[in-house]
Amino acid sequence: MTRMPVTARYARTLLVVLGLSGIAGSVRLAAAAAVFESGALGAPAVGLLLLAATACAALAVTSLVVSARFAEGGGAVRRGAVVVGWVIVVSGSVAALAHHAAWSAGAALGALLVALAGGAATRQWFDRAPLPPAGPTEASKPVLSR
Fold first, then answer.
1. Whole-angstrom distance, CA of residue 27 vs CA of residue 137
2. pLDDT along the chain (146 residues), means of 10
3. Strands (E), the chain
């Protein structure tokens, strides 16, 4: 198998989309913390906003790093995509229960990522032997004689 299957390409695209939206979310949370008016509960609320922004940014960076390593294959990359998907499922579900039902879209996208990364074709792609380098190999180079 030399070409990435469709399910793996969709999982990679979904990781990029989730990573970029995570960066946007962390920027929004950090901006909310910056303009939060302090009062009796000001410091704990700002701390929670900054903690949420940090967690969101860490998940976004992890999503982008895993998506960048998709072409290499390997079981660790596939497991990383599944873990990112489950974290998004859990955090989206908690946010939907605690804040607004619109956050359930994140849980649905995380579940889709888990399904795509756990599929049979994707599993075969990641369990394959590494591809040889694209450049010329020692065997294909001409031998010069004197």
1. 46
2. 82 94 92 81 83 93 93 85 93 87 87 91 78 59 62
3. none
